[in-house]
Design brief:
462 residues; alpha+beta; 2-enoyl-CoA Hydratase, Chain A, domain 1; 14 helices; 21% strand
Length: 462
């Protein structure tokens, strides 16, 4: 089986990788690898969680391997695999645009959306003309002769950077068919009636412009509507990347002031600028102080590191300066940013009503920071799934051939020091979307919020 996979991979390389740019020299490739390795060693805030011996071993091995890559795509794939070793959602390597232009997941006649449901890769959306051929709920059971999970473990998961295993798995399922234009797949499906169907697919250069089933609704930056039951106002904050969301939110205030209960949906908010979320939260609390996350970064002081070479564990007992040199030598000396609450200066009327915040594994970064600020609000409750589990401040830099890398330089925690990066923020009421919900186009998280708000909200446990 191993030899067969190698043969398939070799044929794949010869057929499709030849379409990829081949601009980088061996020296360029070693330089890019070394630049990323160096920046990680110097700036990656979670370096203390990395197996340093294995990290160095991987680097030395790649010095030879990157020079042997046949084109720039192969090279960047190796870099992405190296980056994924760090297991951080804010530390990534991105292809040059010229490579992205030759990648997609569009098949010639099929377009489907996949989600991980109870450990299976399941079709939850498909182009309308194929909904009878591959009904919603159809499971992908094999890819190119391999069981789906084996295929993901070999060809998808090793190249994805993620702080949490559940996000890693979901991203792998969603992106399992992304590849170079012209790539062929033989896919085995198990249909809802338990029949087996095998189809051949080929990634097409042309995007399939056919309506999806169920229809894909474009999400606006901010969405507002009334849910008539119990005078509940619903507002979705779908990104904190654009400060326009603050203006849009303020425009809804005349309506929001009428609400007796409120649902804030940040399930599709991948983050952006933490301040944008904080500005909105000021209208949703009576507090004069808002407590956000505590932050720290690594501190590199060369002389302390040199002194630490001779510092023993026993020297650090009751000696703070010796402890600093000991930490510096081990790349564990940190700088804690000054911490204090944000003062809320707001003369406008506030909206203090029972509030449900809807969250999911797509709630990430600045949206998780929003949840930290909101954590001590007694009138708020979190409903849905565990969040993405990654935030921080990435350091971006250019890579050879037009690629981009970024490295997380800041560690954030709850005010108490409790960690959520690598774990996710837990909901107070956990609700999982089942296959039945997908098939019936139901939103169980929203329903759970309405059911909760329909009752007299009990004080939530912190």
């Amino acid at each position: 089986m191993k030899h067969l996979l190698i043969l398939i991979f070799a044929l794949f390389s010869a057929t499709f990788y030849g379409q990829m740019p081949q601009k980088l020299t061996p020296a360029d490739k070693v330089y890019g690898l070394s630049k990323f390795w160096q920046e990680v060693n110097y700036n990656f805030v979670y370096l203390n969680k990395v197996d340093r011996e294995q990290w160095e071993s991987e680097y030395k091995k790649l010095i030879t391997e990157v020079q042997e890559t046949e084109n720039d795509y192969e090279y960047y794939r190796l870099l992405q695999k190296f980056c994924a070793f760090l297991k951080d959602g804010h530390t990534n390597i991105y292809f040059p645009q010229e490579i992205y232009d030759k990648l997609n997941d569009n098949f010639e006649a099929h377009k489907f959306q996949l989600n991980g449901i109870q450990g299976k890769a399941v079709i939850t959306g498909i182009n309308k003309s194929k909904k009878e051929e591959l009904p919603l709920g159809t499971e992908v059971t094999k890819v190119n002769g391999m069981p789906t999970q084996d295929y993901l473990d070999h060809y998808v998961i090793p190249f994805i950077s993620s702080s949490t295993d559940y996000v890693l798995q979901e991203l792998a399922v969603k992106n399992m068919f992304e590849g170079p234009i012209g790539t062929n797949y033989k896919v085995e499906f198990k249909l809802p009636d338990n029949s087996i169907k095998t189809l051949d697919f080929r990634i097409s250069e042309n995007k399939l412009e056919e309506e999806m089933y169920p229809p894909v609704v474009k999400k606006e930056l901010l969405e507002f509507k009334w849910i008539t039951r119990d005078d509940v106002a619903y507002i979705a904050l779908n990104s904190f990347d654009d400060a326009t969301i603050i203006v849009l939110f303020k425009n809804t205030l005349p309506e929001l002031y009428k609400a007796k209960k409120l649902i804030i949906d940040i399930r599709n908010n991948g983050g952006g600028n933490t301040n944008n979320g904080k500005e909105i939260l000021k209208y949703l609390t009576n507090d004069t102080l808002l407590y956000g996350s505590r932050s720290q970064t690594r501190q590199h002081i060369s002389t302390l590191k040199a002194w630490g070479n001779w510092t023993k564990d026993s020297d650090t007992l009751n000696d703070a300066e010796a402890k600093r040199t000991w930490l510096a030598f081990r790349d564990e000396l940190v700088y804690a940013f000054p911490y204090g609450p944000d003062t809320v200066k707001l003369e406008q009327k506030r909206i203090i009503v029972p509030t449900a915040i809807l969250i999911s594994m797509n709630t990430a970064s600045a949206a998780e920071d929003f949840l930290i600020f909101a954590d001590n609000q007694e009138h708020m409750i979190k409903i849905g799934g565990v969040t993405f589990g990654s935030t921080g401040q990435p350091l971006p830099f250019e890579m050879p051939g037009g690629g981009i890398a970024r490295i997380c330089t800041k560690k954030d925690t709850y005010p108490s020091g409790k960690e959520f990066v690598g774990l996710g923020i837990l909901p107070n009421i956990e609700v999982e979307k089942t296959l039945k919900d997908y098939l019936e186009n139901k939103d169980p998280v929203l329903e759970a919020a309405l059911n909760y708000l329909g009752k007299e909200p009990a004080k939530k446990s912190l």
